[in-house]
């Protein structure tokens, strides 16, 4: 097990470096940063001056090495727009995004897994049909539309919840539902399919033949095996939620990291965008690593391979 | 004479299918005493496995089971509550399945799965359960039993897994053990060992055993009683010697001609086959089900079929000795 964890950890670090390099070079390919910074009316000399000032005239590898060494120390440079250290800028926003992400994935898992299990126990029952309807609706509805509907109903018509902002826990209810509902269908379908598959397997019959009761059969013997693919999916969804909650953060005016990313791209704020891409990809890497470890704990066959 | 451990009368199972009802098992009767071994033989789809699952109360949804009587040590299984059935399953009656490769839970160690069988039925500590597991693993001939406890199913071969399954079935010293083709999925070299082991353990613990197989060589070696099933019916049943020496139902005779028997089969002569296929059991099933393949069939075989008894030996045929006498058997 320890060997497995170390192997995965090594792999995660390698992926992290690769991702950081690719994201760094992609931003250089997307245009001349000096020209963009200088603005449309700048003269050739101005652009050259800016190029030298920011060090864009050095070879790209040198710039990357420089940036990476600072990044490892937690220094992501200064935002062109805010004129503040990027690290503290992101630090302020990350709290909101992480809270939203944790709430979103929790909401998704807490609704999707029980629903998937019940749907698998009674396939084609009323509950199964309802679960199917909910998941199709969730997959078909765009987040921005669903978010607006919720605002219209619960904030404007009923006045139960605040429409935007992040001041209290009440502000997080609708964003959580919108974000979680987006991830729910896939998790639900995978849980249902996994449970259906496992429940018809020979070892479930063995468990029953031993005299285990239905609760024990379902949770100890079946769900433990059926949940393995769900763990991997949830990890990817979680990474997506932390990095890709841009739409939800914009609708509900939650000033999180996603919102910051969107603003910074529009403003050509290179250091901020680079740092955010790095942090978002780190989230994916960390969650994938955690999912691998959790899966190895759940499934002994994975440990030996 | 004491009451039999297991007594079954008119066990019937119907499965609703697309175009009607599949009469999968019809009117099964048999008794089994403590310490006896009953072999159920018959071809695939004849209802052997369904019969054993019905006894264990493990039938899938959608299969309708009925019986005039199905008692285990005086307990009426058709009327037993779910709780009562759970207490019996694994506790007083156990089952060994055909597929050792997939019958163990991949997520738990051998030790956990063995211990669970005991912990579900007895108030013992984990340590006691593990000690019992080691004892049984040794009994089923697994070396380094102690270290096997922490292994997972995927680390064991098929033969070892089936030994683990046997050990698991024996954890609570059941009075009845049902083995559904326990060696079909194993290498030929392992098959004999596993059967020998089951047979010896059964004798040692004085367990009654139902062994489902289509290997008549095995039947000849281990059975006390034989039940021959064909297309959902028990066509012939009786003590093993009588079944092999004086097979009465035409199907049983046909089956016996399909295998070489020492002293009975002539050298150089080809083995028999039973021509034709098993009839469909969807819709109404009347008369003798074997008549479409029977060399002795007459018009009367479409009607009610009497049961002939001679002590414990019984068979269903319109002819008192299972033969039409006007002509010789076609396949002889």
UniProtKB/TrEMBL annotation, chain A:
The chain crosses the membrane at residues 94-118, 130-160, 172-191, 226-255, 275-298. Keywords: Cell membrane, Membrane, Transmembrane, Transmembrane helix, Transport. InterPro entries: BPD_transp_1_N, MetI-like, MetI-like_sf. One of its GO terms (cellular component) is plasma membrane. It is a multi-pass membrane protein. Residues 94-291 form the ABC transmembrane type-1 domain. It comes from the Bacteria. The keyword Transmembrane helix applies. One of its GO terms (biological process) is transmembrane transport. It is found in: Cell membrane. Belongs to the binding-protein-dependent transport system permease family. This is ABC transporter permease. The lineage of its organism: Bacteria, Pseudomonadati, Pseudomonadota, Alphaproteobacteria, Rhodobacterales.
TrEMBL record, chain B:
Signal peptide: none annotated. Gene3D superfamilies: P-loop containing nucleotide triphosphate hydrolases (3.40.50.300). Its main location: membrane. The keyword 4Fe-4S does not apply. SUPFAM superfamilies: P-loop containing nucleoside triphosphate hydrolases. Keywords: ATP-binding, Cell membrane, Membrane, Nucleotide-binding, Transport. It is a peripheral membrane protein. GO terms for cellular component: plasma membrane. It holds the Pfam family ABC_tran. Transmembrane segments: none annotated. Residues 6-256 form the ABC transporter domain. PANTHER family: DIPEPTIDE TRANSPORT ATP-BINDING PROTEIN DPPD, OLIGOPEPTIDE TRANSPORT ATP-BINDING PROTEIN APPD. This is ABC transporter ATP-binding protein. It comes from Aquicoccus porphyridii.
């Amino acid at each position: 097990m320890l060997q497995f964890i170390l192997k995965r950890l090594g792999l995660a670090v390698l992926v992290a470096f690769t991702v950081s390099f690719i994201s760094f070079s992609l931003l250089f390919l997307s245009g001349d940063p000096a020209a963009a910074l200088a603005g449309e009316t700048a003269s050739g000399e101005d652009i050259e001056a800016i190029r030298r000032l920011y060090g864009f005239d050095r070879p790209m590898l040198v710039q990357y090495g420089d940036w990476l060494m600072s990044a490892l120390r937690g220094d992501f440079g200064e935002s062109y727009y805010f004129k503040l250290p990027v690290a503290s800028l992101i630090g302020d926003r990350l709290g909101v995004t992480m809270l939203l992400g944790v709430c979103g994935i929790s909401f998704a898992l807490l609704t999707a897994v029980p629903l998937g299990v019940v749907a698998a126990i009674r396939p084609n029952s009323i509950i199964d049909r309802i679960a199917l309807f909910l998941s199709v609706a969730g997959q078909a509805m765009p987040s921005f539309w669903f978010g607006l509907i919720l605002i219209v109903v619960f904030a404007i018509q009923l006045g139960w919840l605040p429409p935007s902002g992040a001041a209290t826990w009440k502000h997080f209810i609708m964003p959580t539902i919108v974000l979680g509902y987006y991830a729910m269908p896939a998790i639900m379908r995978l849980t249902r399919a996994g449970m259906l598959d496992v429940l018809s397997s020979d070892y479930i019959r063995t468990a029953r033949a031993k005299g285990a009761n239905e609760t024990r059969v379902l949770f100890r013997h079946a769900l433990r095996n059926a949940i393995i693919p769900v763990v991997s999916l949830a990890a990817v969804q979680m990474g997506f939620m932390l990095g890709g909650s841009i739409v939800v953060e914009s609708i509900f005016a939650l000033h999180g990291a996603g919102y910051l990313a969107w603003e910074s791209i529009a403003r050509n704020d290179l250091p901020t965008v680079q740092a955010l891409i790095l942090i978002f990809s780190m989230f994916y890497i960390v969650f994938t690593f955690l999912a691998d470890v959790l899966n190895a704990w759940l499934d002994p066959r994975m440990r030996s391979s | 004479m004491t009451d039999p451990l297991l007594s079954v009368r008119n066990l019937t199972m119907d499965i609703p299918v697309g175009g009607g009802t599949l009469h999968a098992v019809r009117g099964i009767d048999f008794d089994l005493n403590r310490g006896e071994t009953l072999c159920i033989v018959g071809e695939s789809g004849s209802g052997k496995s369904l019969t054993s699952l019905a006894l264990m109360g493990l039938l899938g949804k959608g299969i309708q089971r009925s019986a005039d009587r199905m008692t285990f040590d005086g307990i009426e299984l058709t009327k037993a509550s779910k709780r009562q059935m759970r207490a019996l399953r694994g506790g007083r009656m156990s089952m060994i399945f055909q597929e050792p490769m997939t019958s163990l839970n991949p997520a738990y160690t051998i030790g956990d799965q063995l211990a669970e069988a005991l912990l579900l039925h007895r108030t013992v500590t984990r340590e006691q359960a593990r000690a019992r597991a080691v004892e049984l693993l040794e009994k089923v001939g697994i070396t380094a039993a102690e270290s096997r406890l922490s292994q997972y199913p995927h680390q064991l071969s098929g033969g070892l897994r089936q030994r683990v399954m046997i050990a698991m079935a024996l954890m609570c010293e059941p009075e009845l053990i049902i083995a559904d083709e326990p060696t079909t999925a194993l290498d030929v070299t392992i098959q004999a060992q596993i059967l020998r082991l089951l047979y010896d353990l059964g004798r040692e613990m004085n367990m009654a055993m139902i062994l489902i197989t289509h290997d008549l060589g095995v039947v000849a070696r281990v059975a006390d009683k034989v039940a021959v099933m064909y297309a959902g019916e028990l066509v012939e049943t009786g003590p093993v010697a009588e079944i092999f020496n004086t097979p009465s139902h035409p199907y049983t005779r046909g089956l016996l001609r399909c295998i070489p028997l020492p002293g009975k089969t002539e050298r150089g002569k080809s083995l028999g086959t039973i021509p034709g296929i098993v009839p469909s059991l969807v819709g109404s099933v009347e008369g003798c089900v074997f008549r479409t393949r029977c060399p002795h069939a007459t018009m009367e075989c479409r009607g009610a079929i009497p049961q002939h008894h001679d002590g414990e030996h019984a068979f269903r045929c319109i002819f008192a000795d299972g033969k039409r006498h006007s002509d010789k058997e076609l396949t002889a």
